Amino acid sequence: MRILIVSAQSDFRQQMQAACLRYTKTLVSLRTAESVGQGLELAHQFEAQVVYIDLTRNIEAGILAIQQLSGVPNRMVVVSIDKLTTEFVTRTIRAGAREVLVQPVQDEDVHQILDKFAAINSNTVDVQPARNGKVVICFSSKGGVGKTTMACNLAVMLQQRFGGNRVALIDANTQAPNIAPMLDLRPTRWLRDAVMEYRRLDNEMLNELMTVHEASGLHVLAHSTDNPLGLDFSEDQLSKILLVSKGSYDWTVVDTFPLLSTLNLSMMDLSDQILLVTEPVVPSLRSARYNLEMLQKAGYGKDRIKVILNRFSNFRGNVSPELVAETLNWPVSHVVPYDVHSTIAANSGQALVNMFPDSNVTSAVSRMVDGVTGVPTPPPPPEGVVEKALRQFRNWLDL
User: Fold this and answer.
1) Virtual CA dihedral for 97, 102, 108, 111, nearest 10 degrees?
2) CA dihedral sign, ordered 259, 263, 265, 270
3) Are 79 and 48 in contact (CB under 8 A)?
């Protein structure tokens, strides 16, 4: 469910955002706008299905906005104001509002409105394009923890598992992109091209902007630091790209810039899972704990955030996964072992899961894909004596 919150009051926007994210009956994607003009633009670009608009600061501009917003079929416009009057209710309902929300905001009232929208539209056809694909965000506010490596290998293994043109990898690390060199790609189209055309971006155009990773068939929207146009990236632009990707691909994996910014939060709102990558080192764990605290305040819970403990090695004095979970006050979903093969693969411009399919890291990524998709790894075919001996010999040469 795509929800837009329009209000000049930061407190109202934060309360509404938290209340909507606590709605558990369906996946919620959120955007916020500080002005009516910005709200009208975002409602179009974001293809908002439910619009909460606060008219406390400017009723007259709000009335005109309601008339435009309510003109889209299967969209519910909800109005709110700090001092509710009969005249206000009458005018806004006549303008096209479907519901009135009393302030201060209560979770129960917000959720009842969302329930009504879901019930009303359960038997109607959505006029907006289907956005059924899943988005997985790889994030950490500390650089160097293996976030990009995780995103690349996760995406490649998803492609191996599902095949076809069903998996996309987007490099949204807008300041320090590394996916293209890590997969040894030579793109001719980039993320900036999608950003420049985001207003008319559709499934066909996005597909044309993708670079195919020949070794796996994965579709990659790479980003280059070579940006002669000085193009800035905004929340609307990256959100639109993700929305189109959700309609084009079954799975979209996104690598992010290591900063807990509004840009990253806007993409997280569109995600199904957030993989918070950390490693068993005190600075990384402190950063991860701070990230978890901030993400919880933003309304994300254990159903969306999964902690990935990367580069773990079992030696005396190291921090165990159990201690990591205790320190973070959050369960560790997956442990990825330290393996020198990760460095070899990165320096070779190859995905580790392709270059070293029998490595412990590949097995860990496979279990991660099981967790992300909810589909267990299919059992391997029976291995003959000769195949087993050859595999063991190859593994021995790799050591």
Assistant:
1) 20
2) negative
3) no
| Token couple for 162 | 């599902």
CB burial readout 176-203, b (16+ within 10 A) else e: ebbbbebbebebeebbbbbbebbeebee
pLDDT in tens, 186-241: 999 999 899 888 878 889 999 999 999 999 999 999 998 675 444 567 777 888 89
Cβ-contact 170, 254 below 8 angstroms = yes
Which amino acid appears at position 368 of this protein?
Answer: M
Tell how far CA 133 is from the center of its chain. 11
* Partners of residue 308 on adjacent β-strands: 277, 334
Give the integer Cα–Cα distance in Å for 124 and 139. 36
- pLDDT for 125: 46
Two structure tokens written together for 253 = 């994996």
CA angle, 112 then 116 then 122, to 5°: 140
* pLDDT value at residue 184: 94
Q: Record the tokens describing residue 165, joined without a space.
A: 């043109």
pLDDT by residue (tens digit) across 372-390? 998 887 666 676 777 767 7
Instruction: Please state, in angstroms and as integers, the Cα–Cα distance from residue 220 to each residue in 191, 237, 280, following that order.
Output: 10, 17, 30
Kindly give the pairing relationship between strand 251-256 and strand 167-172: parallel
Q: What is the pLDDT of residue 59?
A: 87
CB 151 within 8 A of CB 310: no
Of 252, 292, 16, 270, nearest in space to 142 by CA: 292
- Cβ neighbors of 244 (< 8 A, separation 6 or more) are 201, 202, 203, 206
Q: Dihedral, CA atoms, 136, 142, 145, 146, nearest 10 degrees? A: 40
Q: State how beta strands 211-213 and 134-139 pair.
A: unpaired
Please spell the DSSP secondary structure of 241-270, one letter per residue. Answer: HHHHHHHH-SEEEEEE-SS--HHHHHHHHT
The pLDDT assigned to 278 comes to: 97
Instruction: Compute the residue count for the chain.
Output: 399
Q: What is the pLDDT of residues 96-120, one digit of tens each?
A: 999 999 888 999 999 999 998 988 8
pTM: 0.72
Pairing of strands 211-213, 218-221: antiparallel
Nearest residue to 292 (alpha-carbon basis) of 337, 244, 262, 325: 325
